[in-house]
Amino acid sequence: MVKGWSVERRVGIRHPEVAGKVAAVLAVRDLAVATSGLYERGEHIVDPRSGRPARGLLSMTVVGPSLALADAYSTAAFVMGPEGVEWVAGIPGYAGYAVTAERRCLWSDGCEPLLVQDLGR
Question: Which residues contact 41 (CB under 8 A, 6 or more apart)?
């Protein structure tokens, strides 16, 4: 959580498959950053439509003014798969960055100015 820091901070988005590696680096100021993924707890995010583990993404990061909402949005968008990036883009003040199951990196337009380095493409 970076909220409240008046100076720009660089935040690494953890690579979902390689421990100690980052998938991207964001430059944020007074914003919260939350990531949902499979790398810590395995397939613990369940798609309520099927009752089975969510598929389609390896990780989903959401940036915005509220950590609680960024966390909730990252989990919801993770369940949606790659379409979750577009869904997050429709929420005013929030941006998304995802790593797909095919190891492609996707991000919303709002994430573009924050993206310092994308190591996943």
Answer: none
Residue type, 44: H
The Cα–Cα gap between 95 and 62 comes to: 6
Please report the sign of the dihedral spanned by the C-alpha atoms of residue 67, residue 70, residue 74, residue 80.
Answer: positive
User: In this predicted model, what pLDDT tens digit does every residue of 20-33 receive, in sequence order?
Assistant: 888 899 999 989 99
Q: What is the largest CA-CA distance in the chain?
A: 43
Alpha helices (runs of H) in the chain, residue ranges in sequence order = 67-80, 83-89
> Is the CATH number 3.30.450.180 carried by domain 9-118?
no
38 with 83: CB under 8 angstroms?
A: no
Cβ(51)–Cβ(20) below 8 Å: no
**Using DSSP, how many helices (H) and how many strands (E) does the chain show?**
2, 9
**Token pair for 120:** 């996943």
**Rounded Cα–Cα distance for residues 103 and 95 (Å):** 19
Global pTM value: 0.85
Task: For residue 82, give the amino acid letter.
Answer: P
